[in-house]
Amino acid sequence: MDARWSGIDPRLYFVTDTPLCRRAGRTVAQTAALAVAGGAGIVQVRDKTLGDADFLALTRQVLEAVASATRGTGRRVPVVVNDRVAVARALLDDGADVHVHVGQGDLPVAEVRRVLGPRPLIGLSAATAGECAAARASGCVDLIGLSPAFDTATKRDAGAGLGLEGVRTLATQAGLPCVAIGGIDETRAARLRGAGVIGICVVSAICSAHDPQAGARQLLAAFAGTAA
Question: I need a labelling partner for 226 at 20 to 30 A (CA). Which of 39, 92, 173, 190 fits?
């Protein structure tokens, strides 16, 4: 992990889901602020239904919420844009600390790097040893999201879960920092401790929580092996 990771705590990586937040009676930005207050060290904005203009507005709201939640703490909590490379470029041009995560079917990582330049971190979803090897060989990927770690209903097109041993095997082989995403709750967060991943990505366990701040705190404690 190079200097671009300076000040980032990747152990709890929160991915937003607009409908889940709405059902819980909160905005995405409110949920992000609570998650960060509870210890989330990275926030990814994901909404496949919005056009770019609305997604840009949503990301700006999350950036403001994260800035407010970290003001005076000395924490650096980067915001990651899911897939929308043009939105990320616009935000970078405005001086925002934003990064990008893409899937296997999105813009190729070499093109993402060409558009964004050398500074932003680029994450890539992967589910096989071949995909991890290709990510490493590209020289463009900074973080692999091993997905889905467990069976999940949050992402309908996700395949069968890798399971604990599948995550462990891929994380060992990847040659890049990895986080696990998909079906992770407090119990599974504890099981992933020592599985070779640097963090856990959580969607519904925070978006749908009665108290996202407490939920984030408990998830981080479970993964880190500390008291909540």
Answer: 173
